[in-house]
Amino acid sequence: MIVTSIGGGTGSFHLLLALKRIPDVRINAIVNVSDNGGSTGILRTLYGIVPPGDVRNCLVALSEETEAWTKVFGHRFDEKLDNHSLGNLILTGLAQIYGSFDEALEKAHSILGIKEHKVIPVTYSSTTLCAELGNGKVIKGETEIRSFLLGSKQGAKRFFIEEVDQIFPNPDAIRAIRDSDFLILGPGSLYSSLISNLLVPEIASSVKSSRAKKILVSNIMTEPGEMENETVEAILDEVEKFVKPDIVLINSKKPSLHLLENYRLEKKNALKAVKKDTRYIMADLINEKQILRHDPIKLSRILGWIFMRNSAIMKDS
Q: DSSP H helical segments within the chain, as ranges?
C-alpha cells in the first residue's frame, strides 16, 4: 500500500511517525518549500538550495533511529553560527558535495537508513508565497506574511506563488500522487504547510485526478496568522478550493482546561466541527503534554483502520 502525505512542519513530522507504525505501508512525504525564515531562510538565500528545514524534519521522522537523529539533526548552534540547526547544515553540505539538492536528498536517505520511504520536495524551483490583502496590498514571503497577519486585523484575500509560471512541479511528486492508494492532506499550518503545496502548478490537479482516497487530517488548534476561525469547516472550505477530501479526520477529545488556558494566552483555541458531514471521522487524537500534538500511536490506529476498511471496500467494488 502506498500512502502519500502533503504538508510540512511539525504536523507532517507527527503524521509520518504514525504512518511508520502501520505495517505494509510505503510512505511518500511531499514537503512544501516556501519557508524563508530562520536557519532555513539564510541557507536558502546564501546557497540557492531548497529550504532544508521541513525536509530535514520529515527525513528524521522516517529514519530508522528517529530519537537519535532528532537530537543530531535538530541540534541548534548559538548566534555565533546564526542559530543554524546541524541538520540544515548537513543537507546544505551534501548539496555542495554532490552538486544538487536532489542528490543530497538521495544520500541523506541512505545515511538515515530510509529504504522504502521517500521525502519529496514539491518543487525544486525557488518559491515565494504571497498574500494579497483586501486593500490590494501584497505581502511577500512566508515569514513576512505570518508576521504581518499576526499584528493586523486585516486578513488575506488570497494566497498565491510569485511568478508561478516559472515554477515547475517535482516529477517525483506527481508520480507519488498518481501511484498512491491514499493521500493525506495535513495536519499543519493551513497556508504555509498545506496550501503552499497545492499552489504549485499541477499538484492540485494531480490530487484531484488521483484514484487515491483523500484524507484531510484537521489541526487541533487555531493558529494566529494562518487560521483563526475556530471551526473545522473553515479549514475545509479553504482546502476545497483545491480538492475535495473523501474523509476528514477530526480530534474529538477536549484538551485539559490548564492547557487550553495556556494556548488562549497565545490567542489559540481548540478547533471544533459545528456541522454534520458523512465524511467526518471523530477520534481521540491528541497527546496532552506541555504542547498539544497529534499522538502518533492514536493516529496510527485510526489511520490503520481507515486504510483497512477502505481497501476492503475498493476490493469489493
A: 9-20, 38-47, 52-62, 66-74, 86-98, 101-111, 142-150, 171-179, 196-198, 203-209, 232-239, 257-264, 296-316
